[in-house]
């Protein structure tokens, strides 16, 4: 229900406060369905991960954060002298530090909240990847026109949005969700 409300509010915002890319969000495949799937992917990934033992969860989480760290290092090295602004490079470096922190936390401190942390990350990234991926698959040319981009650079621009906005959102989601669930568990005891 929350995802559906989030989707309809996204559609309503696109209609009432238009931006250059608002027409892309008139399509429910972009504005509503990814938001509904946040809860579903989070729930089912949590249910699946809950069946794994802590050691397996640590391995899975360690591999996932390692991939993110390697990807961020690659992006920083690739773009250090290229088109990314200093702000974006600083943002990538900050994300890298947070991801390294999460990698260390996974290695040393992850316990019963591992399935919650991973599921919240998956849920957050579901929304981002489906929205931006849908824009790329359905509206790449319209997105390029709206953002004043060359059509050949749409994939790069969308990847930049996913890195700059979605990855931090997913990391914050992991931190907030694990804190809230830990607090609820303590209050329940």
Entry keywords:
7 helices, globular, single chain
Overall description:
The protein has 7 helices and no strands. The mean pLDDT is 84. α1 (2-16) runs antiparallel to α3, α4 runs antiparallel to α5 (86-108) and α6 runs antiparallel to α7 (154-188). It has 189 residues and is an all-alpha fold.
Characterize this entry briefly.
81% of the residues lie in helices and 0% in strands. It has 189 residues and is mainly α.
Low-confidence stretches: none
Strand content: under 5%
Number of strands: 0
Please identify the structural class as seen in this structure. mainly alpha
How many H/I helical runs? 7
Proportion of residues in helical segments: over 70%
Largest sheet: none
- What do the pLDDT scores average to? 84
End-to-end separation: 28 Å
Any idea what the shape is?
globular
* SSE run: HHHHHHH
The radius of gyration computed from the alpha-carbon positions, rounded to a whole number of angstroms, is 18 Å
Topology:
Elements: H1 2-16, H2 28-31, H3 33-50, H4 54-79, H5 86-108, H6 114-146, H7 154-188
Helix pairs in contact: 1-3, 3-6, 4-5, 5-7, 6-7
